[in-house]
Amino acid sequence: MAILEEISEMVQKGKAKDVVALVNKALDEGFAAQEILDKGLLKGMGELGVRFKNNEVFVPEVLIAARALNQGSAVLKAKLVEEGAKTIGTVVLATVAGDLHDIGKNLVRMMMEGVGLTVIDLGVDVPDDKIVEAVKEHSPDIVALSALLTTTMDQQSSVIKALQTAGLRDKVKVMVGGAPVTQSFCDTIGADGYTPDASTAAEMAKSLALAN
Ligand code: B1M
Questions:
Q1: Cα–Cα distance measured from residue 148 to residue 102, given in angstroms and rounded to the nearest whole number
Q2: Of the candidates 93, 140, 152, 206, which lies 20 to 30 Å from 119 by C-alpha distance?
Q3: SS3 142
């Protein structure tokens, strides 16, 4: 079995140790980090997502797979950080309140760090006031928000309103993303930028930070 296909299989089986070993092996064999991510780790989670939707697997299996994916992507992150770049700006990053999904957010953090941004990662299920406090404390260039549920995407709008109320909205750019989020939603809620994936999010954040 080709190594990227094997990584995808091991993510789906939640075999974190095997995933880490295979990711290291793929790097040694000369595969690019992005290819390992897209065609190995994310392919595995995508396939598991379909089985989750069809009730063929359940929350525990998905959580174990998520842990395996996160450990595999940590190996890739080490590789990106090794290539190192000096900081070009600061991002406060969070998955919004009510939402526990962090795989996409973690990839966004990894890609942003890869282009030289400092990322303050507040984690998942982050209330609006905690994001406002972080903006006061760190004076970031950008607030980046992730939401994976149709029921939590409106929370991104709530964060923007909380920043307005605190008098901070004109001091930061707000980027939004996550599977249910679209450009039109971004425009409707008055965010400054939307991108569909982690690498374009990093590119946009870099441009916004450099323009600041
Ligand atoms: Co959940 N879940 N989940 N889940 N889960 C989805 C999202 C779902 C689509 C599955 C389905 O039914 N088909 C569905 C949402 C339906 C909807 O709202 N439309 C769903 C549901 C319903 C739920 C629960 C309600 C299930 C339940 O309990 N009955 C529950 C909610 C819990 C909560 O958050 N309050 C729940 C729970 C979970 C787990 C905890 C088991 C687990 C999360 C574990 C974790 O994150 N640590 C989980 C998972 C893993 C998934 C799926 C299978 C995979 C999500 C994922 O990580 N994808 C997902 C189905 C699917 O997507 N196929 C599903 C890989 C990740 C890389 O993609 O996060 O989209 P994503 O990130 C992308 C882009 O969106 C973008 O970049 C990334 C790629 O480059 N991006 C940004 C993300 N953030 C960005 C920010 C940006 C820019 C781009 O700028 C700031």
A1: 9
A2: 152
A3: strand
The Cα–Cα gap between 169 and 185 comes to 18
**Angle at CA of residue 20, ends 4 and 93, nearest 5°:** 95
pLDDT in tens, 54-67: 899 998 898 899 89
Q: Whose C-alpha lies nearest to ligand 1, atom 28?
A: 59
pLDDT, tens only, 24-79: 999 999 998 888 988 999 899 889 988 988 899 998 898 899 899 989 989 988 77
CATH number of domain containing 10: 1.10.1240.10
What's the number of domains the chain is made of?
A: 2
In a shared domain, residues 120 and 138 = yes
User: Do both 206 and 106 map to the same domain?
Assistant: yes
Report pTM.
0.86
Ligand 1 atom nearest 204 alpha carbon: 90
The residue whose CA is least distant from atom 20 of ligand 1 is: 149
Atom of ligand 1 nearest to the CA of 67: 47
Q: Roughly how many angstroms between the first and final C-alpha of the chain, as a whole number?
A: 48
Burial of 61 (0-12, 13-18, 19+ CB in 10 A): middle
The C-alpha atoms of residue 102 and residue 162 are separated, in whole angstroms, by 22
Regarding the beta carbon of 108 and ligand 1, being less than 6 Å apart is answered: yes
